[in-house]
Specification:
7 helices, two-stranded antiparallel sheet, single chain, 36% helix, 5-stranded mixed sheet
Amino acid sequence: MCLIYSKQAQMLFTHVSRTGGAAMTNYMYATLPDSRRLVGQHAPLVAARPLLGELFNKTFKFAFVRNPWERFVSWFALLGKAKLAHAADPNGLHDPDSEHWKGFDAFLEKWSAQTTFIDGVSRPAMSQWAQLADAEGRLLVDELGRFETLVADADRLFAKAGIPTG
């Protein structure tokens, strides 16, 4: 996940992994020349709050989410095809020779058990909600789109921000 911000459009896109976020990111970069990444990959939305200060509440914040089962299947297929191996990955999640690659059930068990600290609170690392909420569990985005209706939702969300689509 990364956070893409356009001051010109006063909008902030949170890229939740495996939800069509690369297409949204590319569209913002192509359409809004001032679009920039606020923080590195895998940053939760709450990380933008101190960077934007008072602008955070005035900025239109949106993200796309996906059916969790479809998202995990997509992830399993992606990692299986890419055969990613990260020596620095202590959990072996990207290592195709690790135990969790014995099948989808083992993969799902391993991934769904991962936790991370977001805004000082331990959260499920792969939870879409946790990536978009604050420490009290309040959703921080103004609008959500769904991967399953990506084009229609993208048109609606960009129109809401006054950005023409095509």
